[in-house]
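Journal club prep — side note

Before the paper discussion, L.F. wants everyone to see what a predicted structure for a comparable chain looks like in token form. Sequence:
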Amino acid sequence: MTDPVSYKFVTKEELTYLIFTPWENDERMTHGFSTRSGGVSEGDLATLNLGFNRGDKEENVIENYKRISKALEVPFESLVLSKQVHETQITKVGHKECGNGILIPNKWESMDGFYTNEQGVTLVTHYADCVPLFFYAPKYGIIGMAHSGWRGTVHEIGKKMIETWRNREGIPVSEIQIAIGPSIGPCHFEVHEDVASCFQSQFPNADFITYNQSKDKYTIDLWACNKQSLCSVGVPEENIIVSGICTCCMDQIFFSHRKTGGKRGTLGAFMCLN
């Protein structure tokens, strides 16, 4: 898991997505993280916008989901979308939730993390700088995803997923693998003292929270925050993949809320047991 080349881009026709190389040849699980390319949306949303709340035409978003589903080779009807509100609610889903948020109305008011042990259920979470967390325990046939924005990171949603799997599903922490996907990096995540104090309270004396006196702002490494949180409950460091990709730096490839001031589309993270 410590291979510095932790990811690769895959292009099928005009659509490009990212995968994590340690999981590349695992036929038991399909995963991917979308880029901006390969869809039909226009303007600031060009082209693979996966957000229904960005002012896009609904038929464009549906077509974009169909295209990414085809590229990943998962059924469009198997997608399960959540409603993310930067909290730490986590739930278990199955075939009865397939189509949630895309073919049928969203059943949750708040759900930033979910998981499944059923084959043919494709989990989908959404991003445009927040941290995507992918969870996988191959020996136990279970996958999960968590949307970890700065609030989710402070409140340690990744740690909560690990504890849920351990306590409710009986999965040894040492068997859980995690991938931290593309998000805003420490190079661009600058905050004022009000936000920084939340992190300092949760991660005291952390060297990944630094103060820039000339700007009177703090720089925070969300990847390191999540990694420390996961390791604190026993996840072996070698079980954690960190892509190290900053969506703000690579805004020509990924949508970035901060870089564009909110004029952007939405990225999607996908996982499915085969």
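L.F.'s comment for the group: The first strand starts at residue 7 and ends at 12. Keep this in mind when we get to the figures.
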